[in-house]
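Customer ticket, subject: "Can you confirm the structure for Transglutaminase-like domain-containing protein?"

Message body: Hello, I'm evaluating your service for our small team and ran a test protein. I'd like someone to confirm that this is what the system normally returns, since I don't have a reference to compare against.
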Amino acid sequence: MPRRDDTPARRRRFAEAAREERPDLALLCLLVAQEADPELDEDGIDAAQIELDRLAGLVPYSPGGPGAWAAALAGLLGDRFDFRGSAADYRRLESSLLHEVLRRRRGLPILLSVVWLEVARRAGAPVYGVALPGHFVVGFGDPYGRHVLADPFDGGRVLSDEDAALLVAGALGVPSAATVPAPAKPLEIVLRILNNIRAWAAARPERTDVQLWAVELSLLLPSHPARLRYERAKLLVERGDFVAGAKEMEEYAEVVAAMEPNAAEAVRRRARAARARLN
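Agent reply: Thanks for trying us out. I re-ran your input and got the following:
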């Protein structure tokens, strides 16, 4: 008997979770992972949350100031449990899936940072995420005052603001001031994770299925780039759904026509070309 498609229910749950007053970052990341791993059921989601709770229970009680919190998390997650990353992790979709990162203890900087954020938050730490260009780290303390930055991808290595500026300069190719961005909000973190997944899939033409669901989840977030609608339309056409793709292109063209008339006309031409492929 064919398996019932539970995609609509999953998408509704993701959209509802994203619109909570205080979005649950771990839950949202696990709902993203569900799109990639059909074996991740409710028990699997619960098990991942329980593992985060278990790790938080191993953090020393109120270790002290920002530096002591960073050292405590590095000692637990970086040293004892060996959570960290390597260049090879950028080539694996599992590196963007929270339940797999908890299992493998390997992942992209942002997913390792999610583990740190969720464990530290549960333990009572003053913790926040820091979205640097090309990298993601965590901060402890007051982001606008006394704080310490740590790099979970490097096992929890402590960074000065100057170290962070060097990371930014390396990513951008130009010198950067020693200033750290404001704390990243949960939905900003989720959108960045989905952007990483889209980029992973875009480099693999055979994985348009992954790129499509990453775009569709991004569109369910309360705030997202409008151009994602056009990306979805192009993916639909690429996957052979010419009618739906053309319709979405035409709707996107109407949205941008007032500000970018030339771009809108180019999109309409692509829509007409998509419809012509039906003949």
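A couple of notes from the result: The longest helix spans residues 186-202. The chain has a mean pLDDT of 92. Feel free to reply with more questions.
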